[in-house]
Design a protein that fits this description.
The radius of gyration is 15 Å and the shape is elongated. The chain has one domain. It is mainly α. The protein is built from four helices and no strands. It comes from Roseateles saccharophilus (Pseudomonas saccharophila). InterPro entries: UCP019883.
Length: 100
């Protein structure tokens, strides 16, 4: 796999994963359906999706070549980027459609 393909794959997965908690009413995406899922479940799912996306990126980086050690700055910036990528779902869920 080429490096640019891996980067685009991780970015596409991050966009989808960051918006899934807002477009799905199931608990942890596979559990029972709740009509108004609480904000705390959505935040937990968002954190879980971020960890899974980071793991995918790490696995692809290890498959392409040697993994580079990352400091806390990388993870802080990546978490901010992940939250920013989830903004369209947040707008759709809470600002456009309202709470109910």
């Amino acid at each position: 796999m080429d490096q640019s393909v891996a980067v685009w794959l991780v970015l596409a997965a991050a966009v989808i994963a960051a918006n899934l908690p807002y477009f799905n009413e199931r608990v942890l995406l596979v559990g029972p359906r709740q009509a108004p899922k609480s904000v705390w479940w959505r935040l937990l799912e968002l954190a879980l999706m971020a960890v899974l996306t980071f793991a995918l990126g790490s696995a692809l980086e290890g498959r392409i070549g040697q993994r580079h050690a990352q400091g806390w700055e990388f993870y802080a910036a990546a978490a901010c980027l992940f939250i920013t990528l989830g903004f369209p779902g947040f707008v759709w869920r809470y600002l456009r459609r309202g709470r109910g």
